[in-house]
């Protein structure tokens, strides 16, 4: 067995153990340990997805889903992890859209966990239809993205201690897997003034 395949199996095993640790922490009401365990499990999930992407094994399972429900669920799952104000806005969300729900959920969950680290008081998750695009965005009131990330949005993000590089690499790969009528999904970053992560999927 090649090292990469062995590492992938090990990642899967450790991820399952972290899930059990998170469940025990939740039962004890230990939100700090719960947040750390979920963040670590999420990082391993993204590593495994990156391995699949590099080996051509990451393929989307696209169907019709409710963006509004996705935002509501992500906000509800994240609120217990922090004292921050975490809000969802679905006012302009379409009734349904076609995408791989598990991959999109993974990307947005990563954006939310990044926002938890940098937000000062508030995080806003939105889903809105803009022309022929669905925009799923996570905005916080923190210091925003560094200038070098905004200056070269198409370049691979440098790896950081927070794992931001892996998250953005995977987000862009997942977005590109969503293609329709010659248009591919994309990721945009902005400061307004806090960080705004936006995943855009074509109709």
List keywords for this structure.
49% helix, alpha+beta, 9 strands, 5-stranded mixed beta sheet, 203 residues, globular
Overview of the structural elements:
This protein is α+β, with helices and mostly antiparallel strands. 49% of the residues lie in helices and 23% in strands. It has six helices and nine strands. It has helices spanning 3-28, 31-54, 67-78, 101-118, 147-151, 164-177; strands at 63-65, 85-89, 97-99, 122-130, 133-140, 179-180, 183-184, 186-191, 195-202. The strands form three sheets. A five-stranded mixed sheet has the order 2-4-5-9-8. Strands 1-3 form a two-stranded antiparallel sheet. The protein has a two-stranded antiparallel ribbon with strand order 6-7. Strand 8 and strand 9 (195-202) form a beta hairpin.
């Amino acid at each position: 067995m090649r090292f990469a395949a062995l590492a992938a199996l090990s990642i899967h095993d450790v991820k399952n153990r972290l899930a059990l640790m998170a469940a025990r922490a939740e039962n004890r009401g230990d939100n700090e340990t719960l947040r750390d365990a979920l963040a670590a499990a999420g990082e391993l999930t993204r590593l495994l997805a990156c391995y699949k992407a590099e080996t051509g094994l990451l393929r989307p399972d696209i169907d019709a889903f409710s963006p509004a429900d996705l935002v509501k669920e992500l906000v509800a799952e994240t609120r217990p992890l922090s004292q921050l104000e975490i809000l969802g806005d679905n006012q302009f969300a379409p009734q349904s859209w076609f995408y791989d729900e598990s991959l999109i959920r993974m990307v947005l969950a990563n954006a939310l966990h990044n926002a938890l680290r940098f937000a000062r008081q508030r995080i806003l998750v939105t889903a809105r239809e803009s022309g022929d695009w669905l925009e799923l965005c996570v905005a916080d009131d923190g210091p925003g993205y560094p200038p070098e990330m905004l200056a070269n949005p198409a370049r691979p993000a440098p790896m950081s201690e927070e794992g931001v590089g892996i998250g953005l690499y995977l987000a862009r790969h997942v977005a590109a897997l969503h293609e329709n009528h010659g248009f591919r999904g994309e990721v945009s970053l902005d400061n307004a003034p806090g960080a705004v992560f936006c995943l855009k999927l074509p109709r």
